[in-house]
Design goal:
The structure holds two protein chains of two kinds. The radius of gyration of chain A is 16 Å and the shape is globular. Chain A starts with 20 loop residues before the first strand and ends in a 7-residue tail after the last strand. Chain A is built from two helices and five strands, in the order βααββββ. Chain A has a single domain, classed as Thiol Ester Dehydrase, Chain A, CATH 3.10.129.10. By secondary structure, chain A is mostly beta strands. In chain A, a hairpin with a 4-residue loop joins strand 4 and strand 5. Chain B is built from four helices and five strands; from the N terminus they run βααααββββ. Chain B is of the alpha+beta class. Chain B has a five-stranded antiparallel β-sheet, with helices on one face. Classes of the chains: A mainly beta, B alpha+beta. The interface between A and B is large, with 46 and 45 residues.
C-alpha cells in the first residue's frame, strides 16, 4: 500500500457522523496482493481473479484512508459481504466508505461501517459492512 | 455437486504481521504483545478476516474458481479470538446454495460462524 507507516485512528464514537460518505479511494488488486490472499497463509498462489479474502483487506485499506484506520482496541464483531462481479487481477477499483449505524447494546458501543467497491466503470463489485465494537462510547 | 471439503490454516505471528502490512491495520491487539497482554484478551489476537480465510479457501476450492460467483453473500459472526499458533479448520459439506459453516480452532472452539449463499 502507498502509506506504509503504521497509523491508528483516534476517532471517538461521538465524532462519527452517520451517513457521511468518504472516498472514493482508488486501489488496485495487484498480482502480489491477490496471490498472497489466495492460498494457504504464507504460501502465495497465483490467481486470475481476486479471491474473496482480498475484499476485507480492501475494506481495511479504505478505512485507513477514510479515518486513519480502526481505533486501537476496536474489536470486529460481524462482517457481511455481497459479491456482485468477479474482479480480474490488476483491476483498479474505487471504494466508498460511510458509517451506517451507531448504537449501544448491552452497554457496548457498536459502529457499522459500510463499504461499496466499484470498478472504474462504476459497476458494483462487492458491497459489505463491518460491525465493530468501538473502544469509546457516547460521551467518552 | 461437491462432496465437501475441509481446509486448515495455521496462524502465525509472521502471518498476522504480514496481514497488518497488507491491510494497514496495525491495531495493537494484533501487533503489540505488551498492549495485547494488557487487554481483555490477554495476548495477541489475529485480525478477524484471518480466521475467515479457511472458509473462503474452502468455498473457492469447492466451487472450482478463484473468486466467489456473483450473487454470493457471506455473513460472518466472530465468536472467539484467533491467536498465533492456532490451526483454523473450516469444513464445507455442500458448496452451492445456502450454506452454514463454522471455523474452529485446534481445541474445537468455534471462532467464526458463517451463513452464506454461494451461487453456482
Amino acid at each position: 500500500m502507498s502509506e506504509d507507516t503504521p497509523a491508528l485512528s483516534d476517532i471517538h464514537y461521538d465524532d462519527l457522523i452517520v451517513g457521511e460518505r468518504m472516498g472514493p479511494f482508488a486501489e488496485t488488486v495487484t498480482p502480489d496482493l491477490a496471490s498472497r490472499l489466495a492460498g494457504p497463509i504464507g504460501e502465495p498462489t497465483p490467481v486470475e481473479h481476486a479471491p474473496p479474502s482480498v475484499f476485507p483487506v480492501l475494506f481495511l485499506r479504505a478505512l485507513r484512508r477514510a479515518m486513519g484506520g480502526i481505533p486501537a482496541g476496536s474489536i470486529l464483531a460481524k462482517q457481511e459481504l455481497e459479491f456482485h462481479a468477479e474482479l480480474p487481477v490488476e483491476s483498479s477499483v474505487a471504494i466508498t466508505v460511510w458509517v451506517g449505524e451507531k448504537l449501544v447494546k448491552r452497554e457496548r458501543p457498536f459502529v457499522t461501517i459500510e463499504f461499496d467497491i466499484r470498478t472504474d466503470d462504476d459497476a458494483p463489485v462487492v458491497t459489505g459492512r463491518k460491525i465493530i465494537v468501538w473502544p469509546t462510547g457516547p460521551g467518552e | 455437486m461437491s462432496m465437501g471439503i475441509s481446509v486448515t490454516d495455521r496462524v502465525t505471528q509472521d502471518g498476522i504481521d504480514a496481514y497488518a502490512e497488507l491491510s494497514g491495520d496495525f491495531n495493537p491487539l494484533h501487533v503489540d504483545p505488551a498492549a495485547a497482554a494488557a487487554s481483555e484478551f490477554g495476548g495477541i489476537i489475529a485480525h478477524g478476516p484471518i480466521a475467515l480465510h479457511a472458509f473462503f479457501r474452502a468455498a473457492t476450492a469447492s466451487l472450482g474458481g478463484d473468486a466467489l460467483p456473483p450473487g454470493s453473500t457471506v455473513a460472518v459472526t466472530y465468536r472467539a479470538p484467533t491467536r498465533p499458533g492456532d490451526a483454523i479448520t473450516c469444513e464445507l459439506p455442500d458448496a452451492f446454495g445456502e450454506v452454514e459453516a463454522e471455523c474452529v480452532n485446534q481445541a474445537g472452539v468455534t471462532v467464526v460462524s458463517i451463513r452464506a449463499t454461494l451461487s453456482g
